[in-house]
């Protein structure tokens, strides 16, 4: 009886280690973290989250295309709750996106996720003053930055996996990964 229990425990442990070694490589689903104190986007009766952003270009460069591409990427995740639109009426926006030359601040983008309206800032200083985390400007730098900062406004904190949009440091992931998406469905 004792011996049988011991063998089955060992089989059980072996099964766990096989499962986790294959499961870990294949799945990013747990690769997200969410903010503890966070004011969620309001949802309509059908559960849709309408984000109407106003873009204020204050510097030299225009990031409207990067913003559009990043918005589309969040709209297109599996079972997406988001409908993201640009508005030219600032007073109707629940998200303000500003770009300007903020200088050598150490950040390319930053998000104020608990403001009303929520706010994203894009720092164009790194557009001309490379390196942006070790490399010079590419279109994908700012598309990824908008995607990442939008993730913060959705309530996602950083997670230390380079395949996720919410990776702690700048990467060029242009589509929310499994962890990013799971994080959204955990919050909403
Ligand atoms: Zn991951
Ligand atoms: Zn980059
Ligand atoms: Zn961040």
UniProtKB/TrEMBL annotation:
The keyword Signal applies. Keywords: Signal. Coiled coil: none annotated. Residues 1-25 form the signal peptide. One of its GO terms (molecular function) is metallopeptidase activity. This is Peptidase M10 metallopeptidase domain-containing protein.
